[in-house]
Amino acid sequence: MFTKEGSVHVLKVTNLTKRFGGTIAVNQVNLQINKGEIVGIIGPNGSGKSTLLHTITGVYQPDEGTIEYRNKEITKAPLEEKARMGIGRTFQNLRLFKHLTVWENLMIPAIQLKKNKKEAEEEAKELLELVRLHNHIDEQAQNLSVGQQRLLEFIRTVMLNSELIFLDEPTAGFHPNMIQNFLDTLLKLHARGKSFVMIEHNIPAIMEVSTRLIAVAAGEVIADGDPKVVHSNPQVVEAYLG
């Protein structure tokens, strides 16, 4: 199922390019996500981070390049198809069913995947405990704080049996006390075999959990490797200070 190239890669992106008119938002990006990694993606505003994520996950179609998941080319597959394959994601703009309850939001993926009802309910209860939303199961999603809604969207992605999860600014809108809750949950799910790619402006948070860091500027990868090395890379510092 996997090809070994030093490490077992889950996702491989080759020469990925996305244009909007005359603007090149993602320019010939090559990257590989290995099984069991937590990959942080950093870069200044407008660097192409979210466009890269959208293009990989199927929100946008690339203009050039290929995307492989578990050695199968999935370049042109839409978002929904990639989700069924095991590629989950959250969004900066939350995509919850806001008039449904917390519990109902978690049961929708279970119904879509035709999960065993009892097993799905047990999984949902455990995930709600992990993110400390177990006392809110009967509340409408719209009545939760922004941080709580982000936690709900996160665990709903897990309910879809996602093995590789992309997180787009996951701590945006969080109360500081909730950030650690999120990071602890991510690490617990990582210990169970989930792989993550996370765009995040909260540098201390991303440095705490990332096993590898990728820096992006002007639509290109400018550094990729050990988080501390990448963070202190002169080219990365220059990109932020501009």
Question: Care to describe what's here?
Answer:
- The chain is an alpha/beta fold.
- The protein has one domain (4-241): Rossmann fold (3-Layer(aba) Sandwich), CATH 3.40.50.300.
- It contains nine helices and eleven strands.
- It has helices spanning 49-57, 79-85, 102-112, 117-130, 146-159, 176-191, 203-209, 227-231, 234-241; strands at residues 4-5, 7-20, 23-34, 38-42, 64-69, 72-73, 87-89, 164-168, 195-199, 212-217, 220-225.
- The strands form two sheets. A six-stranded mixed sheet has the order 7-8-9-4-10-11, sandwiched between helices. Strands 1, 2, 3, 5 and 6 form a five-stranded antiparallel sheet that branches.
- Strand 10 (212-217) and strand 11 form a beta hairpin.
- Helix 3 packs across helix 4 (117-130) and helix 3 (102-112) packs parallel to helix 5 (146-159).
- The protein is globular, with a radius of gyration of 18 Å.
- Residues 110-137 form a coiled coil.
- Keywords: ATP-binding, Coiled coil, Nucleotide-binding, Transport.
- This is ABC transporter domain-containing protein.
